[in-house]
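Just curious. Protein, please.
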Amino acid sequence: MRHEPSCNWQPKFPSVIATIMATCQKFPDRPAFIYRVASQELTVDYTKLREDVILLARAFEERKITRGSRVILLSDNRYAWIVTDLALMALGAVSVPRGSETPTQELKFILSHARCSFMVVENDALLARHQEMLSVYKEVKTVFIIEGNDKHTLFSRFYAYNDILKDRTLSDDNCNRFDRMVAKVAQEDLVTIIYTSGTTGTPKGVMLNHRNILFNTEMLPPLIAITEKDLWVSILPSWHVYERALELLALSYGSCTVYSSLRTFANDLLTYQPTLVATVPRLWESLYSKITAAIMERGNRAFAIFSLLIKVSIRFRRARRQLRGHLPQFTATSGLVRFGQKVVALAEMTVLLLPYVLAQKKLAPLKDKFGGKLRMAVSGGGTLPAYLENWLDAIGIRIANAYGMTECAPAIAGRGYNSEIFGTLGPPIIGTEVRIVDHEGKQVAPGVEGDVEVRGPQVFDGYIDNEEENRKAFTADGFFHTGDLGKLTINGELTLTGRSKEIIVLASGENIDPSRIEGAIGQLPFVKDAMLVGQDQKGLGAIIVPDWDKLKDFIAERFGLTTEKTEDMHEDLALRNRVKNEINRLLQAKNGFKPYEKLQKIDLLKHEFTVGEELTNTFKKRRHVIEKKYRELIDRLFK
């Protein structure tokens, strides 16, 4: 278990629910949520949010959910999700959230491991998917269905929200009782048990208390300068700690959240004109691919001009940062060297000034696709590749590049308005200690890569019923092993360089971080996804998820080859070699890659990676699942 850090921070309110109820009283008429039911748009103000939470908390209490009850919440994004979460907090119950795509076997494991006595499920269809398991799993006393017809009959354990919320009258006694209940919730009380997405194995239950979450909601605002006037468009799964923390942050400051979806996201940006959005790198990669493909369809000349505008913008902005001292510095340099660098930067800016002004004018329509009022986009849930960060910066989108983990509720570091040092994750969150250590646990100097360890009020107390993992997770002095590799600048900004648990070791002993190479491969317009393989092999291989239509267009344009059938392309060994050669053109020394980081073999998959199987909810690759599923194919690569 961890030790309490030297930070003596204390929250303004004793609990998350107390914080949000105070917001409801401060901004009663401001909108809290906007969402759709079918084609109807609904807006909920903070007064109604409070009433809905009180009503649901009362209904839950009447059906025996009490302080300490474990309640699994199986649902995707919807207004009722956050109401349920807050109602459980008010009761002092513990939520165990999970998304709708959770396999039955995994759900059964979590129900049992977390010792859940109650279950909230999104709809009848989702209930039916797990009905067989639930029919024999009697430890769950009561099941609540958010969206469904009346369910309850005598001696039945099933209730629809329609059943339990028929009486919507609230008396003063109801409200006073609710307030007394909230007042009893303390910062050390357990809020939730979030099971990790399982990128490396069996899910582990992360226990987060009110103090962990409150540290995030109180310390993150300076990074994004949030106020009650801000509007978010939300697209990530509410049950994931990253999205959940941002929704609670929005509620703590009186801003409004619009629930969107992948299907409506682009239109919602134009319709609602958000000031803030939160996404994961995979969504930025998708945006990059769509825009690049759309411009390529206009012809080679249009694409060449667009690429030149991006390059001009990147070079000018980099030179300006060099002049201002806004680039990461990992080793100390003399004043004379810095002066020389600034002279060169100023000269480059002078040459590029007019082309840059033109580039910004031409690229402005891309920024307008985000609604025209976006002042910052938060990127978290994974490392944002350098090419994407440069590309987004070139078109004028300011990114708050954030770093966190479920175990930290989630924030560790972030580069928002608190830091101008581009290409980094900014400094650790105020009150957070981050150190970089070598394989012996000794702290290393700035600029030296090592394991990232963290200590602070946001760090969890441990995994539920997993002493072995808890022993591995913490150092003797209470720092949490993140499993990430990184280094610090001389001024304390953090950069990540890879995952220590994902490092591929070749037979020659070379250590390779797969994420960096996979990020480079993803720049090719016909690559949807890629996973590097080669543990204990002589060289690297990759399994590629192609966009078959774009690949067809690419080989026609590049090599003058035409084919109509995906099957023919999949079996074409010569085509694979051409694709491999295109990838290796990116993996050259001039781009920072070593000779042994080129690919020796590749294979093309017919099917995409899917969320819930090969991908987590934030689109990270579940490497152990992919390796197991495609073991035969991977073995064949190295024969």
About this structure: The chain has a mean pLDDT of 91. The chain is about 40% helix and 20% strand.
